[in-house]
Amino acid sequence: MSGSAVAKRYAKALFEVALEKNLLDQVEKDLQLIAETFSSTPELIEWLNHPATDTAKKKEFFSSVFTQVTELVKNLLFLLADRHRENIVAEISAEYKHLANEAKGMAEAIVTTAFPMTEEDKKELVETFQPIVGKTLQIKEVVDSDILGGVIVQVGDRLYDGSLRTKLTRFQERLKGTRIG
């Protein structure tokens, strides 16, 4: 079974228990903290994945470092340690966030622009796309000067590409197809 399929199963199980215990937001924050800690500390991942690292030591480490996380998330970490799957924490976190957002009627919009957006730009974007998506949008801004101008909005698996770069590419393709003569 692929890592993402396994991560989805763990995330779904965790989501169901968190929903039942009314801990959706806290569990999401805990998972994000752990995922960020893992991604910012490559030595930690190396140590966790090393065959000589004992499962008991991993659990002891998790208990001492992640003292502020809920018991639910701590138990997940222990289970992942038992099954040598600590490397899928980021995937579990992302999938859990998706499930929690769905439950709350929210969606994350990844907005790519050539320049940083103003608060007014963000407000206008939310007002434009919320009716299309039918959910409350949370904006995650990405600045990429390669798009030249315009905006690319990704909500889930939907992509709205209004970048200048794409428009120029389409125009170039149309010009190639036009015969002069």
UniProtKB/TrEMBL annotation:
Organism from which the protein derives: Lihuaxuella thermophila
Gene Ontology molecular functions: proton-transporting ATP synthase activity, rotational mechanism
Protein name from the UniProt record: ATP synthase subunit delta
Function summary: This protein is part of the stalk that links CF(0) to CF(1). It either transmits conformational changes from CF(0) to CF(1) or is implicated in proton conduction.
This protein's UniProt keywords: ATP synthesis, Cell membrane, CF(1), Hydrogen ion transport, Ion transport, Membrane, Transport
Family: Belongs to the ATPase delta chain family.
Domain of life from the UniProt record: Bacteria
GO CC annotations, alphabetized: plasma membrane; proton-transporting ATP synthase complex
Alphabetical list of Gene3D superfamilies matching this protein: N-terminal domain of the delta subunit of the F1F0-ATP synthase
PANTHER family: ATP SYNTHASE DELTA CHAIN
Species classification: Bacteria, Bacillati, Bacillota, Bacilli, Bacillales
Main subcellular location: membrane
Membrane topology of the entry: Peripheral membrane protein
TM ranges: none
Keyword Cell membrane: yes
